[in-house]
Amino acid sequence: MAFRWYVVHTYSGFENKxxxxxxxxxxxAGMQAFFSDILVPEEDIVELVSGEKKTSKRKFxxxxxxxxxxLNDDTWHIVKNTPKVTGSSxxxxxxxxxxxxxSWRSVPASRRGR
Length: 114
Known about the structure:
The protein is α+β, with helices and mostly antiparallel strands.
């Protein structure tokens, strides 16, 4: 199978809920073989607050979820009909596209699942 990463647009602030909902829909449909990974691009930020270090997470692509899958009509149907998914980043036919090499470099290698 040819797994590729695809960019899926979601409501901003609902990325983690979309990830969980999508995982549930994939399991309910029995399509686990067509999906490899679902990623909400985020990084850990260490801030100094009142003299104490606090670690928090920051999304660096707010409103987007990356999905590693084999794209076909059935898998795209599952993704696009997930609650809070508004579509893809593709300009035509509303199907997802793989990220460019330039944008992919901004995702830490440890999170890419390679």
